[in-house]
Every structure is written in structure tokens, then in C-alpha cells.
Amino acid sequence: MNDKIWLSSPHMSGKEQFYIKQAFDANWIAPLGPNVNGFESDIENYLNEDIHVAALASGTAALHLSLIILGVTAGDEVICQTKTFSASANPIVYQGASPIFVDSEPDTWNICPEQLERAVKDRIAKGKKPKAIIAVHLYGMPYKVNEIREIADRYAIPIIEDSAEALGSSYKNQKCGTFGDLSILSFNGNKIITTSGGGALVCRTKEQKQKAVFLSTQARDDAPHYEHTHIGYNYRMSNIVAGIGRGQMTILDSHVEKRRSNFEFYKKAFKDNDDISFLFEPKGYFSNRWLSCISLPDYNVREEIRLALGKENIESRPLWKPMHAQPVFKDAPSYLNGVSDAIFETGLCLPSGSNLTESQLERVTTTINQYFAVC
Ligand SMILES: *Cc1c(COP(=O)(O)O)cnc(C)c1O
What we know:
By secondary structure, this protein is α/β, with parallel strands linked by helices. Helices cover 38% and strands 14% of the residues. It has 12 helices and 14 strands. The chain has helices at residues 16-25, 34-47, 59-69, 90-94, 113-125, 145-154, 206-216, 239-249, 252-269, 299-311, 339-346, 358-374, and strands spanning 52-56, 77-81, 98-102, 133-136, 159-162, 170-171, 174-175, 182-186, 199-203, 285-286, 292-295, 317-318, 334-335, 347-350. The strands form 3 sheets. It has an 8-stranded mixed β-sheet, sandwiched between helices. Helix 1 packs antiparallel against helix 8 (239-249), helix 2 (34-47) runs parallel beside helix 8 (239-249) and helix 10 crosses helix 12 (358-374). The chain is globular and about 75 Å long. The protein binds pyridoxal-5'-phosphate. The site of pyridoxal-5'-phosphate has 14 residues, from helix 3. Pyridoxal-5'-phosphate is lined by residues 58-60, 84-85, 87-88, 136, 162, 164-165, 186, 188, 199. Belongs to the DegT/DnrJ/EryC1 family. It comes from Winogradskyella aurantia. Keywords: Aminotransferase, Pyridoxal phosphate, Transferase. The active site is at residue 191.
């Protein structure tokens, strides 16, 4: 059997263990310490805007805290892009609020400005203004930042920017992760950089960051004993995990370059195949190409290719199944135009790791080309 080719596997720089060793040597084995502070400033320097970063246990925790900081409570409604991973939507339910799902547009596969405005108007007409909008840069492709911002501002609704898949992407030369009223990052095992598990909340003000750190460390008030006026969470990042993050930040740009070159490799290999299409970058958009995705003529071809790859020990995966189609969210109001359902049927994510070799990429393209040669 050929060696397994993963969709997106961790890729260490070699420097991670240096920072972990420092943590052990200084006995900073805790959810605070020099690596946590250092990782936060590494991200702040990278994003290069007037922002404040709180390192947390996961991207999901960052989404949960962003809802709390924006004052989302039981009975509220929050708009969420339907085409996304469930972690974008679950924290809405943690707060006792209700998700309202909005479909995608075909240029970026992300939240559609027309459907968003239709949803906002309709929710207001029904008696409740949504408390926040969760917009996602799927697979690293920025959403329509200006168009979404214009609508959000017109109705005075804050944006939570889910940049879990888009560290290293940018829109009109500004880095993704800096566009929301609050933004989140993820460092899970499959993301463009990983700390094994981890995330960050990107704040616009120092006060927001202080609040995030306070809530993520059990909401301890200033007192010699443990005094609590708020419900707290254990969401802070560990100093060991942050050491991995410090090492990973040193190779983020080269990971972006390699993932983009994977995409170019696939594009070139399939350039004469009219049955395979790609999502291109609109002008001013720069995607980290976290995952390389292809669109196929129909569901059957998509499945046959997925199974043919599986037989060769190559992992691939259909695009995110939209949230409005998930059993757990079947009763949520949704504003749909058919785009997210269509790309779920026909889209496939191909192996995209920054550690793939040329011969592994060739195995992927050869398997797919053979499928088309036979049928
Ligand atoms: C990975 C991911 C998250 C969640 O991040 P975790 O760190 O795994 O909790 C949220 N949103 C999107 C779009 C993601 O891909």
C-alpha cells in the first residue's frame, strides 16, 4: 500500500521544541507565561494593524467569548454564514441565542450580501434586530469584506470575522483577521499553522482583550480570596501550546506559499479538463489556499473521484455541508439562494498540506486523470 496522503496535516518548523524547552526550564507549565505573551505579540506583529490578541484554548472558545463580549444572551438572534464548519454556529447556541443562516455567493463561496440584507430586513420586520453577523473566509478565500461591512454598518450590527481558515490571507492588502469588530483565529491540527489545539481572539481595543483574558481565566475579581461577579470560563491557552505557536509563526509565510503552489499544481494538471473547475481570486483578494478545492460536474462524479482517491490511500473531503442542511439546525430560519447546496454536491477538497511532496501531488492528479481517462 502506498503511504497515506492526508488532506492537511501538521507541519513543524523545528523551532517549536526550543520554546517548549524554555517553558520547562523556567517551570512555566501553566495557562500563562512568556510563550503566551510572545505568541500574542508575534500574531499582533504579523497582522500589522492596531489590534490586541488574546491566545485561547481554541477557535471555538474565541467565537464563544466574542458573542459574550458583544452582549449576546438568551433569546437573541445571530446571523451566521450557512456554508461553514459547525464551530462557527455552535457558540450561538451555547449562549441560548438562535442562529439565522445566510447563503453564499458564487465569487468567494462566502456570505452573500443580497441574502444578508434580505435576512436583516426580514428579522427586523419580524421584531428582532440580529445582535451580530458571523462571516467566514472559507478555505482561506476572503469574504466580500467591503460589501458586508457596508450592510453591517448601515444597520449598526457588529461583525464577528471567523478567520479560522484564513491566517495569511488578505483583502486589498489588509490581513484577514483584522476586519471584524472582533475576529477569531484557529490553530487546530489541520489549520495552516497548528499548536495541536488552540485559537485566538483578535480585539480592536485593549479593554476587549482584558475582558477576554478575564473571562477565559475563570472571571476572578481583584481580591485576595477568589471573588466572582461574572460566570467564567477555562479558555486560556497553555504556555506549552503557545511555545508550539511561536515556532509555527516563523514559517507561516512559507506555508502560505507552499499551499498556494499546491493550488497552482492542481490548476496546471487539470488545465485541459473541462470537467474540473476552480475558485479564482477576484481582484484584490489573496487566499492562503488553506485547502485546494475543485468543482465537478455532478454529485456522482464527485463521489466516484473521492472513492477512487480513497482506494489509493489519498484523503479528500466534500466541501462543508451547509448548516441549514444539518439535522441539528433543521429548525433555524435560513435565507437561501441555492449556492451553498450546489457547491456541497459537486465540490471536493484535495490534499493541501504544506508538507506534500511533488510525487505525492502527482499521485493525486494521476489518480484523478486516470478516472477521467477511463470514463
Ligand atoms: C477550525 C474552525 C473553527 C474552530 O476552530 P477550533 O480551533 O477547532 O475550535 C471555526 N470556524 C471555522 C471556519 C473553522 O474552520
